[in-house]
Design a protein that fits this description.
By secondary structure, this protein is α+β, with helices and mostly antiparallel strands. The protein has two helices and six strands; from the N terminus they run H-E-E-E-H-E-E-E. The strands form two sheets. A three-stranded antiparallel beta sheet has the order 1-6-3. It has a three-stranded antiparallel beta sheet with strand order 2-5-4, with no helix packed on it. Strand 4 and strand 5 form a beta hairpin. The longest helix has 16 residues. The radius of gyration is 17 Å and the shape is elongated.
């Protein structure tokens, strides 16, 4: 996970706080949102569970396959409502032995 620094928690140093707000705003406008991850689905399984502190009950996921084996099964992937809890999501998917079903995941919400 690639992380970008956040905003200083304290406003005691106003110039530092304002600099952090400016830099944070600049990164957001450039699309640097700290909302991506690289995930690989389990081989020989019909579902894979992922844990990430950025996942909430209302989080939507967008996956972009990074390999041909990942692209071949993207139409079989889904997250049922019962497969999500705070900090965790279970993705149901086609069961095969490929070990390179890797996706760039984006979190929204």
């Amino acid at each position: 996970m690639s992380e970008f620094p956040g905003i200083t928690a304290s406003t005691a140093n106003t110039p530092l706080f304002l600099r952090d707000v400016l830099e944070f705003s600049r990164r957001v406008m450039q699309g640097k949102l700290n909302n991506t991850a690289l995930w690989t689905l389990a081989a020989n399984a019909s579902s894979t569970t992922f844990t990430d502190a950025r996942i909430g009950l209302e989080t939507a996921l967008h996956w972009s396959p990074t390999t041909s084996n990942a692209a071949a099964i993207v139409d079989t992937m889904y997250v049922s409502e019962s497969g999500r809890v705070n900090n965790q999501v279970t993705i149901s998917h086609a069961n095969n032995s490929n070990t390179d079903k890797t996706y760039r995941i984006t979190f929204h919400g």
